[in-house]
Amino acid sequence: MTDKPLSGRKAQAARNDKLILEAAHEVFVADPEAPIAEVAKRAGVGISALYRRYPSKEDLLRKLSGDGLHRYMELVREAVESEAEPWEAFRTFMRSVVLADTPSITVRLAGTFTPTPDMFQAAMDGDALNKEMLARFKNAGVLREDVGNGDLQMVTESVCSITIGDAERTREVRLRTLELHLQALRAPGAAPLPGTTVSDEEMGARWIPKGA
After folding, report:
1. Which residues in the chain land under pLDDT 50?
2. Are residues 71 and 170 in the same domain?
3. 3-class DSSP state of 186
4. pLDDT at position 38, please?
5. Least enclosed by CB within 10 Å: which of 77, 80, 85, 99?
6. pLDDT of residue 157
7. How far from 111 is each of 61, 114, 115, 178, 211, CA to CA, in Å?
8. What stretches of the chain show up as alpha helix (H) in DSSP?
9. Which of 142, 191, 182, 126 is nearest to 159 (CA)?
10. Is residue 127 within 8 Å of 72, Cβ to Cβ?
11. Tell me, what's the pLDDT at 5?
């Protein structure tokens, strides 16, 4: 059954929303303090059209971060359910996270707005899914035993902080750097890792605005 095409007005609204979110990702990852008017300018839409969809900058930041979280969770589910060879499934997952650039949202936007209870619940659901994924790859013998979810997040956040030249060169360097990390993550590992992985509490605390 084919979905019914959107009416002209609804189709335009959907296009505007896509443009707004793409522009917001570019603008706020580059500068979380940027005004919302810069997003409208980058998207090529009127400020009134933006405000009809997102009444405040916080609403737009929550939408952007929520979408990033949901995209990340989709990638985790794909990794858990993948029928590919286990190491290749894990490598594909890590590459997909970097290419989707969801860690950049976490690095740049954490602590800049107040998350909703639904967002915290989604993060908890994501944590459970992450643990399932880690167990799968450790049981398959491809991921070193002393790696935790926090380690994977720190790797992808670090890689996604790289900006070199244009978008294509940045993508190339990020994937090259990720490959270096992947060799260190693969079982059995050359030597035990020092210290402990970043905890769920430490990662969650970053989302609480200062002074809240």
Report:
1. 1
2. yes
3. strand
4. 95
5. 85
6. 93
7. 11, 7, 9, 26, 10
8. 8-30, 36-43, 47-53, 57-81, 86-100, 102-109, 117-139, 149-160, 167-185, 200-205
9. 182
10. no
11. 59
Residue 176: which domain range?
65-205
Q: Which residues contact 200 (CB under 8 A, 6 or more apart)?
A: 127, 149, 150
Count of residues making up the chain: 212
111 domain residue, yes or no: yes
**Are residue 112 and residue 17 in the same domain, yes or no?**
no
pLDDT in tens, 71-121: 999 999 999 999 999 999 999 999 999 999 988 887 788 888 888 888 888
pLDDT at 1: 46
| Residue 51: alpha-carbon gap to chain centroid | 25
Q: Count how many domains the chain has.
A: 2
CB atoms closer than 10 angstroms to residue 64: 22
4 falls within a domain: yes
Taking the C-alpha atoms of residue 76 and residue 186, their distance in angstroms, rounded to an integer, is: 18
Angle between helices 8-30 and 36-43 (to 10 degrees): 120
Q: Hey, what are 171's tokens?
A: 């993508």
